[in-house]
Write a structure and sequence with these properties.
Length: about 300
């Protein structure tokens, strides 16, 4: 049995099931500073543009699609939600956002904006196609009148607008679809908005994101069990002297790290023991925490990085 990070001994790591709720780590971990950076402007700008473009495209595709297919509708809806969410999370990363709460709140607002863009473009497309008998209205005019969009939605709900298998769907089924559509867009965008930053490490000194090394190294474990336990509990002083190996040779130690390429002060890492199965099958859930590296640990990690790159 191997003692890992002062947690109880796990007699059979191959069949161990991690707890549903992870215990807090017994070591310091990286936490973002909470600063927003240029993302305060970049996220709303990029998110707003993507919400307008993709929302308009989705609405027009819905109205002008050559045939009705549920899978096509779901694909278009997913493309809209994922497209806006990915744009937002990339803007968060490029704008150096270190505040997950700000990213999520922005995700909610941009998700709602995307829903509004869909409805404005949906009204515009139905009018242009002649489904609704009224005079032509510009898209900008529709955007400026949310009450008109709501009244339009009630008319479409009552009369329906699309015939599927000879039947025009309207009433509560329309409201259920629209509600599900809006919920999916907002939830997906909100979930994706902080995706590129929450599990990353940012170096405040250098003003850059740390590089991810997963893995940084695979090392042959020492034969001495006390030395092995010492390494697994966070003592990296002897890890640099261990020879490297590959994933086909068991057992081995796997070291993952986030390292700043501009300095040696910002680094996080974790280490795990792979016995006779793949690492993700043998590592308990709490092992994916990345601990903050001390100066000595950072030196060892950068030495392993140089070995990896050589």
């Amino acid at each position: 049995p191997i003692l890992m990070h002062n947690f109880p001994v796990i007699p059979d790591v191959g069949t161990h099931r991690p707890p549903i709720r992870r215990p807090p780590p017994p070591f310091p971990v990286h936490e973002h500073s909470g600063r927003i950076g240029l993302a305060a402007f970049l996220m709303p700008a990029a998110g707003g543009v993507s919400a307008f473009v993709l929302g308009t495209g989705y609405a027009y595709a819905q109205v002008y699609k050559p045939f009705h297919n549920e899978y096509l509708v779901l694909f278009l809806l997913g493309a809209l939600a994922v497209g806006v969410g990915v744009t937002l999370t990339l803007a968060a990363r490029l704008g150096h956002c270190r505040n997950g709460r700000f990213a999520r709140v922005t995700g909610v607002l941009i998700g709602l904006l995307a829903v509004y863009a869909v409805w404005a473009a949906f009204m515009h497309a139905l009018i242009n196609k002649g489904v609704v008998s009224t005079h032509r209205i510009s898209l900008s005019t529709i955007w400026a009148h949310p009450r008109a969009i709501w009244e339009f939605a009630k008319v479409v709900e009552a009369t329906g607008w699309e015939s599927i298998s000879g039947r025009v769907h309207n009433g509560w089924a329309m409201w259920l679809f629209w509600a599900g559509e809006a919920i999916l867009i907002v939830l997906c965008v909100t979930w994706l908005a902080p995706f590129a930053i929450v599990n990353r490490v940012y170096c405040e000194r250098c003003g850059r994101w740390a590089k991810v090394f997963t893995p940084l190294a695979r090392l042959v474990p020492p034969n001495d069990s006390s030395e092995l336990n010492d390494i697994l509990n966070g003592n990296l002083s002897n890890a640099e002297s261990l020879p490297s190996t590959d994933e086909s040779t068991y057992p081995y130690l796997i070291v993952n790290a986030h390292l700043c390429s501009g300095c040696t002060e910002t680094a996080t890492w974790n280490i795990a023991f792979a016995g006779n199965a793949r690492p993700d099958a043998t590592v308990p859930a709490w092992m994916d925490y990345f601990r903050l590296a001390s100066i000595g640990e950072s030196a060892v990690l950068h030495a392993l990085c140089r070995r990896l790159e050589s």
